[in-house]
């Protein structure tokens, strides 16, 4: 590992190092309960392939619903305790769906599916509400000049650990699936995730928390409208996030389903591809740290979204006969992953105002979620509408999921040009974290 990055991390303060450890654990947890393993569990519970994306987008729906419970934070005085407790309870709620096949084994598929949807919706709604406060707490703890190193180091450490755990779980599931016992593999993965939740809770309790004036702001509905009406620059940013999230979630929740259901790849094969992506991501993570310390997150995000849009066009060419294209996708994903994920998280802080910070962040989360959930629903509709149709393009059969990916890529490229033309009119930050 590059000595320069390690030397910078050693200079972090105690709370900054604790947040770094917390973020590494949280990212590992999130990676473990999302993606191909969550897709596999949902398919096992009985969710139809065309509806998988809707379920995977429930966290986005939760970001909309969190506005409805946002006022509950006006009742709390000990923010640190409530953030930790709500995050802990919400994460265990999400993990509890692994018990549905056992607890409701005598019930019909509709009951299992609706229970899964309700549990995930409630859990993710509270996780989203607390997560906004947790993220602001973290960003205010990490100075702006250290954020590039912070996120690059986090991602470098996380991808390796996540890969080992995920690959082990995938291999276990593939072996058990032969004997129709793959549920044991899902339960093992979620048990590991529950241990990570407890460890993260313990670390967060040791991080100091200052409840400054920004935390005392009251979340009132008229303030949301006032911010949108008066801050035109932020309004343009919200439109960008709406289009970007719509484009990403039109196809993004379905590519694991495409690999499992259409390409018929095994979990182990998918994890090997992910391993290739991880190796590339680790190799370039230090480069992203240097880039992020010098270039705005909005520019980084725009560049990586352009590549992502091109990727979705390549996805459309991946069939059983042209499986080689999939390597191009996973390698390029490794190249842009750190910049894309961190850019999505950090870009909002370039456009929010000095006052009413939580109002800005809540609005951004809500609008992004609205675009994302609408995208997943639209994607589900497109896949269902073209389910029985296959078009020939250059000798490659283009089915419903590939059509969805082409549309998704097109919208992402539109968002890139919108950002370049509209958002770059004013490049000054409204709120500089640091």
UniProtKB/TrEMBL annotation:
InterPro entries: Sugar_transport-like (IPR052528). The chain crosses the membrane at residues 28-46, 52-70, 82-104, 116-136, 157-173, 185-204, 234-255, 267-288, 300-318, 324-347, 359-383, 403-423. It holds the Pfam family MFS_2. It comes from the Bacteria. Keywords: Membrane, Transmembrane, Transmembrane helix. This is MFS transporter. The lineage of its organism: Bacteria, Bacillati, Bacillota, Clostridia, Lachnospirales.
